[in-house]
Amino acid sequence: MALFILAAAALQAHAADRAHVVVLATGGTIAGAGADAANSATYQAAKVPVDKLIAGIPELAKIADVSGEQVFQIASESFTNDNLLVLARRVSALLKDKTVDGVVVTHGTDTLEETAYFLNLVIHSDKPIVVVGSMRPGTALSADGALNLLDAVSVAANPESRGRGSLVVMNDEIHSGRDVTKTINIKTNAFVSQWGPLGMIVEGRAYWFRKLDKKHTINSEFDIDRIKDLPRVDIAYNYGTVGKEAYEAFAAAGAKAVIHAGTGNGSVAGRMVPVLQDLQSRGIQIIRSSRVWGGFVVRNAEQPDDQYGWVVAHDLNPQKARILASVALASGMDAKALQKAYWEY
Ligand code: DAS
């Protein structure tokens, strides 16, 4: 009997010092299911509930005390600003709980980068926030979701992960939620950061190589607890012969800013300059990003941004530039303050 009591006490002590990680499930391919093991691209996203995801990886119990919540069950292309607000409020509430050491968000890959950046901007905690998805459903041969989720929980349970901003764990890599973007639509090495990952995770051990040099989480001036709503911000994709119609439609729909997804260095076609100036004169902020994957938009290079009162999105792609614009406008920033935010976040 004494041995049994000792063993139980040791187990309890071990459990007591294990991190408590909460998995917030939102849907996506990581919760997807296909009809056949050969279906790596043909499947239905957002099918498997969070308790089944967790139960399907018994190794999780060896690394942390894991609990799950089903926040949504949707494909992430269907996310809205309201989904972002609901999710971030839950993450914030959980990280305020002293018994929670880290949060993992399982998420579709299509808009994963937008959610990860949003959490990077508005969650005031230095505890790990790890967003994870998968490129193949769990029913497929060589599915990537189970290892991605195991790695994500390992990173969320690891005290070394604290204070690094939101993280994205995919394909053995640990990325910053700020920098990472989905670059390929059907391969497991889809997620890339142009300035490189922050580290790698191998057999549960994290290897760190750099830290994010931008403001985030506890150093952010934005706070989910003070954001009631996210102002509408739209993205206008540019190409040869582009016209004013999309810009006009966004203005009519009440956009407070338009992200100009320009060609090259965020270029603006000559005929479009008066269109953007007109939107600016109507109080709609113009933010020049680029449809080009890499590099960053240079201020006052091909466009006199100072003269026009326009903003450049620096290295943020259009979809991330939209997230920052919406968060910044929610706190009432003008063009000058917006530009400072794009340099700093
Ligand atoms: N439709 C995609 C999504 O939910 C599936 C995925 O890749 O997760 O983002």
Would you summarize the structure shown here?
This protein has 345 residues and is α/β, with parallel strands linked by helices. It has helices at residues 2-17, 50-55, 60-63, 81-96, 112-122, 145-157, 245-252, 273-281, 305-308, 318-330, 335-344; strands at 20-27, 65-74, 102-106, 129-132, 167-170, 173-176, 180-182, 191-193, 199-202, 205-208, 233-237, 257-262, 285-290, 311-312.
Furnish the topology, listing elements before pairings.
Blueprint lengths: L1 H16 L2 E8 L22 H6 L4 H4 L1 E10 L6 H16 L5 E5 L5 H11 L6 E4 L12 H13 L9 E4 L2 E4 L3 E3 L8 E3 L5 E4 L2 E4 L24 E5 L7 H8 L4 E6 L10 H9 L3 E6 L14 H4 L2 E2 L5 H13 L4 H10 L1
Helix pairs in contact: 5-10, 10-11
This protein binds D-aspartic acid.
The site of D-aspartic acid has 10 residues, from loops.
Structure description:
The protein is of the alpha/beta class. It has 2 domains: 218 residues, Rossmann fold; 113 residues, Rossmann fold (3-Layer(aba) Sandwich), CATH 3.40.50.40. It has 11 helices and 14 strands. The strands form 3 sheets. Strands 2-1-3-4-5-6-9-10 form an 8-stranded mixed sheet, sandwiched between helices. Helix 5 runs parallel beside helix 10 and helix 10 crosses helix 11. It is elongated, with a radius of gyration of 21 Å. The model has no long low-confidence stretch (mean pLDDT 95). Bound molecules: D-aspartic acid (DAS). The site of D-aspartic acid has 10 residues, from loops.
